[in-house]
Fold this protein.
Amino acid sequence: MIEQTTFALPFAYIGILFAGGGSLSQWLWATVALVAARTAGMSFNRVLDAGIDAENPRTADRLIPRGEVSRFSVWSMGIGFSVMLIFAAYMLNTLVFHLSFAAVAMLFSYSLFKRFSSTSHFYLGMVEAAAPIGGYLAVTGSFEMLAFLPGAAIFFWIAGVDILYAVQDIEFDKSRGLHSIPVRIGKERSLTLSAFCYTLSIAALIFAGYAGDMTSLYWISLIAVAGIFLRQQGLAQRDSTPYEDRIKQVFAINRFVSPAIFIGTLADVLARLYL
């Protein structure tokens, strides 16, 4: 899914930039790894959730429920791109090669999580947070505190927005025995928790900025991200229109968050290198 991949690519690139910029080869293999990971993850999600998707009116028009693609072909795609992820990690360094096996396990297991735990939103956040952490490790080959601050920002942002997304499926999830934060604590508390997650995401970006000695260009992008977050939460909290319509608007502007962080970080790094 091209849109999903371009949404996630800046995550890995942010990690590379915080690690100092990396080489052209590292950018190339990190891109291959991220594209492979996103495709594998979406494939596993679609095939494992095919039965649930077919019963949910909101997702019944996806390709497998419609019969346009077979489960075998989607399984094959997921496995094939998992192998591609592992190979790309091997081309980067030993550490990320070893971690790539855990990454594949996380990509596969995420879709199963909601069957037994309401923490699936935070598990998804952890899966997505692996991208900036992996990008950082792809350059340095070693664990450092700075690798985890952009990861924490992605973790809380993705968890927060996934909670908003899950609100629209409360009744369906209850009827099928599926677990989610909205099912567990209700809509209003879920909206509050989502807003808290967004606050922690901004806090992590602030700490990352200070730890990485970022300058004004990074902080300007952070203001833009904060503005998007406020708009998203405002849309989710407003009761004047159906929630399903509002969540579409939330996700329409959600795609601008990672590019904003990436552009600000890239501009900051380039300015310090050449100005």
Notes: Residues 82 and 105 are 10 Å apart (CA to CA).
